[in-house]
Amino acid sequence: GINAEYGEAVVSTQSTGGVVPILSKLVVAHAGDEYVKGHIADAIGRCCIWGNNRKEFGSRGVVKPLVRYLKSKDTFVYKAAAMALFHLSLEPENCVVMHENHAKQWLVNMVGDDDWILQEAAAGCIANIRHLALANDISKSGR
Question: Which of 53, 65, 59 is CA-nearest to residue 14?
Answer without folding.
Answer: 53
